[in-house]
Design brief:
The structure holds 2 protein chains of 2 kinds. By secondary structure, chain A is α/β, with parallel strands linked by helices. Chain A folds into 2 domains: about 1-235, 3-Layer(aba) Sandwich (Rossmann fold); about 245-315, 2-Layer Sandwich (Alpha-Beta Plaits). Chain A is about 30% helix and about 30% strand. Chain A is built from 10 helices and 13 strands. Chain B is mostly helical. In chain B, helix 2 packs across helix 6 (about 105-135) and helix 7 (about 145-170) runs antiparallel to helix 10 (about 220-225). Chain B has one domain (about 5-265). Classes of the chains: A alpha/beta, B mainly alpha. The interface of A and B includes residues 63, 85, 98 and 119 of A.
Chain lengths: ~325, ~270
């Protein structure tokens, strides 16, 4: 069953720019342009794109705090902006750069307030709190005011806060921003667990591709308001203009090898680097090199996911 | 919407939160006392020149000064109540988090402000009053009913004051910086609440205007209740006047929030 349905949704903003002291130009910006996708219950989807691509606009529309200019949106069967309050009980939101906790209150008090806001039954609240305190190692932090917490500690508090009312959907907007390697890894472990054990559907925006690699099987790439890729993370390698590299060690230094479908990008003594499109098979190229030259060793380098995405962004400019 | 338990919890937490600012509370209470002494001597000079000015005798006038110093912070005549946090949340955009919560934004902040006021009535209201009692001849009522009605009038005063400050905070959805609007609000509430000069001594039409404006609810009316300048039916009228302004301004606040949300939601922040 689709939990999130986005059907040809667009969102435009009117920006007024000063062109001279008196004149102002009116400019229509399409933050999200004819966007369509669905997310099934229990999925964990990475939502990536460069700054200004329309990620946050999409999340804001999905939470109901922004109305689409056109198109149709359904989250858990509800129209987000029309049923914002009802929907609020079914979603949890974490913004890496904002907190939903109260600065001056001990973490425990923030949780207690959230219990009242979302009317979580006391027994359920205690169960959830116990689980999160254990998994997120919050025990020593509960009595500390949020302003005294480090970024990583605050983030753990924020994630627990977003899940106390058992939401069906969790939106995470750059949850690992600014965290150190250990905190990031702990957070990812927790998210995997929540997704698997509680069947929480997760939509994750991030600039850290390791988050995606470790958490999401499916990734959506948005740029200039368009969805440019939607599929398995592994498929991204083969997408667009990504290239793989065949590194060949010849027995003796030689001029650049000449095979169909690949180009030599670098020669260093007997070692040569041959690039070919990522979606092409390596087999015929390896066969051609082996047939025409005396090969001592060879290896294939997959493109780094960051390079693939960088290439994807660049191609669309 | 969540039940009344939530808003009671918000008020209690706000009370506790303000109670942690000990140094600020002490410094504030000291300042109130100093201003009280200065104003009291000024009023004594004024009333010895013009006895019975505005229908007050000199003891009533000096007591009015100390009621003003006691209520100044709880009623937030100089603003900077719980709405200060809301101003900040509107400015930074954190208010978006409040907007997707299943709570009522206005009730939430009203509860927080009432919790703050309760703490400040004790911590900023009592010490200057004791100082005033030590130095000057003050007149407070012996009838406990008067005190109870006074407390009710103070709750209404805080509510009216909050409803104005809430509108001020919401203006941040349109203004880049609310400090200009805030200065204007403070000037108006200082003058028209009677903090520096009781409204009863305002001349002619200005007095009529001042008594019709919402700011009369902040200090002049609760003070007149405690001074027993108003009794019987006149007390009911004062409370009704405060309740009417509170209701009207709170409703206006709800309307403005709806327009502001529409602006943010439909036009984008």
């Amino acid at each position: 069953m689709s939990l999130i349905e986005v059907d040809r949704v667009s969102r435009t903003f009117v920006v007024r720019r000063k062109t001279s002291t008196l004149r102002r130009a009116r400019q229509v910006v399409r933050a999200v342009d004819d966007l369509s996708f669905t997310v099934t219950a229990g999925e964990m989807v990475g939502y990536i794109g460069p700054n200004g691509a329309g990620k946050s606009t999409t999340i804001k529309m999905l939470t109901g705090i922004l109305v689409p200019s056109s198109g149709r949106l359904r989250v858990a069967g509800l129209d987000p902006s029309a049923a914002r309050v009802e929907l609020a009980r079914r979603i949890g939101v974490v913004f890496g750069q904002r907190t939903t906790l109260w600065w001056d209150l001990p973490l425990r008090d923030s949780f207690a307030l959230l219990r009242r806001i979302y009317r979580v039954p006391l027994t359920r609240f205690r169960q959830n709190l116990d689980t999160f305190v254990e998994l997120l190692d919050l025990g020593d932090l509960l009595h500390r005011p949020v302003r005294q917490l480090s970024l990583g500690q605050r983030m753990r508090g924020d994630i627990a806060a977003a899940l106390l009312h058992d939401p069906d959907i969790l939106y995470l907007d750059e949850p690992t921003i600014g965290l150190d390697v250990v905190s990031k890894s702990a957070l990812r472990g927790f998210l995997r667990e929540v997704n698997a054990e509680r069947n929480v559907t997760v939509l994750l925006t991030t600039h850290d591709l390791v988050d995606i690699e470790q958490l999401c099987r499916r990734v959506m790439v948005i740029d200039h308001g368009h969805l440019v890729y939607d599929g398995e993370l592994a498929g991204l390698h083969a997408f667009g203009n990504a290239r793989r590299t065949l590194v060949v060690d010849l027995s003796d230094p030689a001029p650049p090898v000449d095979v169909r479908g690949a180009t030599v990008t670098r020669v260093d003594g007997p070692r040569q680097w041959l690039e070919f499109p990522a979606q092409a098979s390596a087999a015929p190229i390896v066969a051609a090199v082996a047939a025409g030259y005396d090969v001592a060793d060879l290896s294939i380098q997959e493109p780094a996911i960051e390079d693939v995405i960088r290439q994807l962004y660049l191609d669309r400019r | 919407m969540s039940g009344p338990g939530l808003y009671a919890a918000v008020a209690v937490r706000s009370f506790r939160r303000y109670s942690t600012y000990r140094a600020a509370t002490l410094a504030g209470a000291f300042t109130n006392s100093v201003f009280g002494v200065i104003l009291a001597y000024t009023f004594i000079a004024l009333w010895s020149e013009r006895p019975d000015l505005g229908g007050y005798d000199v003891t009533t006038a000096v007591t009015f000064v100390w009621i003003g110093q006691a209520l100044l912070t709880p009623v937030a005549i100089f603003a900077s109540g719980a709405e200060a946090d809301l101003v900040e949340r509107v400015r930074t955009g954190d208010v978006a988090i409040d907007l997707y919560r299943p709570t009522d934004l206005q009730l939430w902040w009203l509860a927080a402000d009432l919790g703050r006021a309760a703490f400040q009535l004790l911590a900023r209201g009592l010490p200057p009053t004791l100082i005033g009692l030590l130095i000057f001849d003050l007149r407070f009522p012996s009838n406990p009913v008067t005190w109870l009605v006074f407390l009710l009038s103070v709750v209404l005063a805080v509510t009216v004051s909050f409803s104005i400050r809430y509108l001020l905070a919401l203006s941040g959805f349109w203004l880049l910086d609310v400090r200009g609007a805030q200065t204007l609000t403070i000037v108006l509430s200082t003058f028209f609440s009677g903090l520096f000069l009781p409204l009863v001594i305002f001349p002619g039409w200005l007095k009529d205007v001042a008594f019709a404006l919402p700011w009369a609810s902040l200090l002049q009316l609760p003070a007149d209740v405690l001074l027993e300048e108003r009794t019987g039916w006149s007390v009911v009228q004062a409370l009704a006047f405060q309740a009417a302004w509170a209701t009207a301004l709170l409703l206006l606040g709800r309307l403005v929030l709806r327009v502001a949300t529409r602006r943010v939601v439909v036009q984008g922040g």
